[in-house]
Task: structure prediction
Amino acid sequence: MSDALNYLLKVRPDAMKSYFDFIKKSGTHLDKKTKAIISVITKVDNQTETGFKQYLSRALQAGVTPDEIIDSLFIAFPSLGLTKIIWAIDIILKLDIPDFRVEQLGLGGDWHFIGKLIEVIDGVSRLELDEREVFVYRHGKTIKVYDTHCPHQVTNIPKLAVSGHVMTCPKHKWKFDIRTGKCIVVGDRPLKEYKSKVDGNKLYAFW
Ligand code: FES
Result:
């Protein structure tokens, strides 16, 4: 909550309680995803960056897909206009949310060289490639390649966050099992895993 809302809660508690009751009771006939999408659109319309990031994250957590977000922006075009839509997309691109990437939307994508197999050691490596950073987990013949961004709020997770088989995002402590990518504590979404393949003695991932 913003400092201003906190302040108003202290100096006008009754009025603000009514306001929050109103917010809570409005939209009771809407499902979670629809409410989340409407909130995102209002933040784009107001061009409040912090609020947009916050509600975008909530919408994704509510199960709204990137395609649905983009469609909603387009449907709201008569009100938003292209400028505000571009403003929102710029922020989304800066956040570098893996699910919004062109190839994740089923458009394009290619195999990328990750490293020579002999250099991919057992355990977890964090690699900085030209176009993105990845975690590579290897146990013998099992190899998994993950995006380094947390599925919660896109924090770029550092190598230090890995301890044994558990990776802990420093921001809100979601914990992931690096062997499967599954979130095992606090959160409910897995790491973004890329398809990978070994060709000769080279490891590739698809994005
Ligand atoms: S950003 Fe919240 S747990 Fe990673």
